[in-house]
């Protein structure tokens, strides 16, 4: 599982305002280039979840809004990543500071008494692996034809992506084949250019992967997410699970009674490590120091599971 998008605001008391220019809006490319710089009095719209750009906005002289996919900024892709919500937000802020300024440095953050982030959007994803891209696309179509939520039936697009609650202002579940999403709409030279951003082994890793992407927006976050719990990866995992469990699947489409198929691609000794991790045991007390970090690195690289973070209790 991983955090795949963060939109959040930090602010400081009026008497400590750092003096931002109200309404300044920036759009930064993945390389840190400022590709848009303008003034607006209105809340900026988030980019599409597939975007590699990052948005910055200053609603007032004492508040700063950041929005984008921090994992893509930090590692160049979002095939796997971290569940550290606060850490990702702060790393994205440091990246923005390096390329465009605005985000406070540590001394400014402390002296101006900036608040913890107030989140208005969080995307949480979980991935499953099928034997091939064709099997992954068949599964997405099966979900689209059978799954329902309180928003109603799923909606399938030609891209091979299914949505539950697509236009909801509270939450959406998006189901898609990851490799198809990476290369959607690209043909010939354009596809080769897109593929060049990712090494062959990463594109191969995405083959057969189906991703369930939960988008939580402001009202839903306020209702169901106590601020103190949002920075607990186990809480976020259980939160994702609660929305997933609320979807009505037919027997063939349900994942709840199946293993996390993405783990089946691991070598047997690493599958054993993951199995022990799922019991809640602290692997640092069971494995030699070097073995623990070697297993952690290999498991994180191959299936996106971080054995240094406790598993969900859901």
Question: Could you walk me through the main structural features you see in this protein, from its secondary elements to its overall organization?
Answer:
This protein has helices spanning 70-75, 85-100, 106-111, 133-146, 178-183, 188-196, 200-206, 218-224, 233-245, 268-278, 289-303; strands spanning 2-11, 24-28, 34-39, 54-60, 63-68, 118-129, 148-149, 152-153, 155-156, 161-164, 171-177, 209-217. The strands form 2 sheets. A 10-stranded antiparallel sheet has the order 3-2-4-5-1-6-12-11-10-9. Strands 7-8 form a two-stranded antiparallel ribbon. It has 314 residues and is an alpha+beta fold. A hairpin with a 2-residue loop joins strand 7 and strand 8. Helices cover 35% and strands 23% of the residues.
How would a crystallographer describe the biggest sheet? 10 strands, antiparallel
Termini Cα gap: 14 Å
The average pLDDT is: 83
Low-confidence stretches: none
Q: Report the C-alpha radius of gyration, rounded.
A: 20 Å
The strand order across the widest sheet is 3-2-4-5-1-6-12-11-10-9
What would you call the shape?
A: globular
What is the tally of helical segments?
11
Helix-strand pattern: EEEEEHHHEHEEEEEHHHEHHHH
The total strand number stands at 12
Structural class: alpha+beta
Helix content range: 25-40%
Q: Which strand-content bin applies to the residues?
A: 15-25%
Structural topology:
Elements lengths: L1 E10 L12 E5 L5 E6 L14 E7 L2 E6 L1 H6 L9 H16 L5 H6 L6 E12 L3 H14 L1 E2 L2 E2 L1 E2 L4 E4 L6 E7 H6 L4 H9 L3 H7 L2 E9 H7 L8 H13 L22 H11 L10 H15 L11
Antiparallel strand pairs: 1-5, 1-6, 2-3, 2-4, 4-5, 6-12, 7-8, 9-10, 10-11, 11-12
């Amino acid at each position: 599982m991983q955090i795949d998008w963060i939109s959040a605001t930090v602010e400081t008391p009026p008497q400590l305002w750092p003096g931002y220019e109200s309404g300044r809006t920036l759009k930064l490319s993945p390389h840190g280039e400022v590709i848009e710089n303008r003034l607006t009095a209105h809340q900026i719209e988030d980019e599409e979840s597939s975007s590699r750009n990052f948005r910055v906005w200053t609603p007032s002289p004492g508040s700063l809004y950041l929005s984008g996919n921090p994992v893509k900024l930090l590692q160049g892709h979002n095939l796997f990543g971290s569940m550290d919500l606060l850490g990702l937000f702060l790393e994205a802020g440091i990246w923005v500071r390096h390329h465009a300024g605005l985000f406070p440095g540590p001394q400014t953050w402390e002296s101006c008494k900036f608040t913890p982030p107030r989140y208005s959007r969080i995307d949480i994803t979980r991935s499953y692996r099928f034997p091939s891209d064709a099997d992954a696309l068949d599964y997405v179509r099966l979900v689209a034809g059978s799954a329902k939520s309180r928003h109603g039936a799923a909606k399938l697009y030609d891209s091979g992506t299914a949505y539950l609650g697509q236009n909801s202002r509270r939450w959406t579940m998006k189901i898609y084949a990851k490799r198809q999403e990476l290369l959607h709409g690209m043909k010939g030279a354009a596809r080769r250019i897109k593929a060049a951003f990712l090494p062959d082994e990463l594109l191969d890793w995405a083959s057969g992967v189906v991703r369930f992407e939960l988008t939580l927006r402001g009202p839903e976050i306020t209702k169901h997410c106590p601020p103190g719990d949002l920075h607990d990866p186990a809480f976020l995992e259980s939160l994702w699970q609660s929305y997933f469990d609320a979807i009505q699947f037919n027997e063939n489409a349900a994942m709840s009674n199946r293993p996390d198929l993405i783990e089946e691609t691991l070598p047997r000794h690493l599958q054993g490590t993951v199995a022990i991790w799922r019991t809640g045991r602290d692997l640092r007390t069971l494995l030699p120091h070097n073995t623990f970090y070697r297993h952690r690195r290999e498991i994180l690289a191959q299936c996106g599971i971080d054995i240094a973070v406790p598993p969900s209790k859901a």
